[in-house]
Amino acid sequence: MTKTIMLQGTGSDVGKTVLVAGLCRIAANRGLKVAPFKPQNMSNNAAVSEDGGEIGRAQWLQSIAARIPSSIHMNPVLLKPQSETGSQIIVQGKVMGQAKGRDYQALKPKLMGAVMESFETVRSAVDLVVVEGAGSPAEINLRAGDIANMGFATLANVPVVLVGDIDRGGVIASLVGTHTILSGEDRAMISGYIINKFRGDVSLFDDGIAAIGGFTGWPCLGVVPWLKSAGRLPAEDSVVLEKLARGTGRALKVAVPVLSRIANFDDFDPLAAEPEVDLVFVRPGDRLPADAGLIVIPGSKATIADLADFRAQGWDRDLQAHVRRGGRVIGICGGYQMLGDRVTDPHGIEGNVGEIPGLGLLAVETEMAPEKTVRNSSARSAIYDVALEGYEIHLGRTTGADCARPAVIIDDRPDGAVSADGMVSGTYLHGLFASDAYRAALLKSFGIEGGGENYRQSVDRALDDVAAELEAVLEPRWLDGLMC
Fold this sequence. Notes:
By secondary structure, this protein is α/β, with parallel strands linked by helices. It has 14 helices and 26 strands. The chain has a 6-stranded parallel sheet with strand order 2-9-1-10-11-12, sandwiched between helices. A 6-stranded mixed sheet has the order 15-13-16-18-26-25. Helix 1 crosses helix 13 and helix 5 packs parallel to helix 7. The chain is globular, with a radius of gyration of 23 Å.
């Protein structure tokens, strides 16, 4: 009989994604067939699963941890925010439509059927399913119709482990407060808790554990230290962009403007891992650095809105100055669309703005179209003649004179564009920098060495390291009971 466990958090960004990945790798290392599952995810960091649909990149990473192919059923409901109030809704890998927050709350109960269908599909093929919640069960104002936390756990009868983040402070109050406000039915689903991101001497928290136990009766299933290896894993939540260090003084500064609807920003993780690359995420209100050798315009979930905001930040002037100084520019997906002469939206896919001027650095134009391209792709860099592996998730078709010089060849068809002087390029292919050969060639063109480490292997090693760290600190009887 398949075992199940669900990690829910006292809040967002408490580290559930990494803990689920770590548990999946522990189980896989012990010879179990294990799979991740997240009923509902909200993220513009999406992946193309191996069965051809969109899922959160966290579940894609967790499938790597589990050593199984990724599937649309691992994340049956994916919300991709397009505005402050609305999101695109992906159900079992396909676009179902769009909804504003209040409308989505009314829609959620209708999605539970797809969630349970996917859960049964995943559960039927493995020995263990490790489920990740979303946000917190303490959001009792959202409990009616919930599909992400206790609504799912109670219906599927999946025991819950609550995760609290001690690094942000107030972890005792967060755990005890969650216990206090949950209904009796929901509270009964919780089998224990994990303290995450602890720094220092764990014994100093003994009294804290006693206090939590006294208030809740829940056992502590482990105090997890700050997992250093987790920093080598792709991050899903854009909150991580708030925490990135800047200005390390390395050989090549690469600047990435943080768009309001930035998508798939883990494209840049391989560059961040390069010893000679200073990767700078430029926040709204800051200038694009004048000493950057390369500026990369990232993907966007709302190209037209982000292009307007790009101008409002004055980044268009900074980018023009960068080009005049001889700086290089790469655009990925939505960033590629922005680099052209204009973007049109005759069908109103992104709203009521029918047309907007582009940044004018590539002689191309993009027309938004209802059909969405979602596929994994084998490709080759037309610039450096090296193999690439990546994926495409985009709306729109881009054409123009500079497309005669494609940036990459995807499945034997040209993609993207390169300016006449070769200084500006764009492509729809995500995962460009994950190619060690491409990264090495790109950095060599700036006069520095790089691309020596196999990035994909380094992620796999990080997953093993996370698993080893967790095995050392999680309560052995609970862990062994879960894995038997």
